[in-house]
Amino acid sequence: MSIQYRVAFKKNDEATEGPDDADVVVRIDAKNAGLDPTAAFMLGKLKADGAMRPLFEALWSGEARSVISRLASRP
């Protein structure tokens, strides 16, 4: 199962990683990207559409944190 990550900087300006046909699409605003992704999900700051199992595995493994951090720190 695949995940697409989207970090939004402002309207119509976002950094994306992952396939367009991903099983899960994860979205977070850049201002919230510094939060722990699990906490952000529980607070409703990190949104996900699609299957939840891959999301929970990405949160547990640390993949979500590293990808979101990388996307949020774009040049």
Structural commentary:
The chain is an alpha+beta fold and 75 residues long. The chain has one domain (3-72): Nonspecific Lipid-transfer Protein, Chain A. The chain is built from 3 helices and 4 strands. It has a 4-stranded mixed beta sheet. The longest helix is centred in the C-terminal third of the chain and has 10 residues, at 52-61. The chain starts with a strand and ends with a helix. The model has no long low-confidence stretch (mean pLDDT 95).
- The end-to-end distance, rounded to whole angstroms, is 29 Å
Rg calculated over all Cα atoms? 11 Å
Kindly give the count of domains.
Answer: 1
Strand content: 25-35%
The gross shape turns out to be globular
The SSE string, one letter per element, is EEEHEHH
Structural class: alpha+beta
CATH class: Alpha Beta
- Helix content estimate: 25-40%
Summarize the structure.
The chain is an alpha+beta fold and 75 residues long.
Keywords:
75 residues, four-stranded mixed sheet, alpha+beta, Nonspecific Lipid-transfer Protein, Chain A, 4 strands, 36% helix
Please render the helix and strand layout as text.
Elements: E1 3-10, E2 13-17, E3 24-29, H1 37-43, E4 46-50, H2 52-61, H3 63-72
Parallel strand pairs: 1-3
Antiparallel strand pairs: 1-2, 3-4
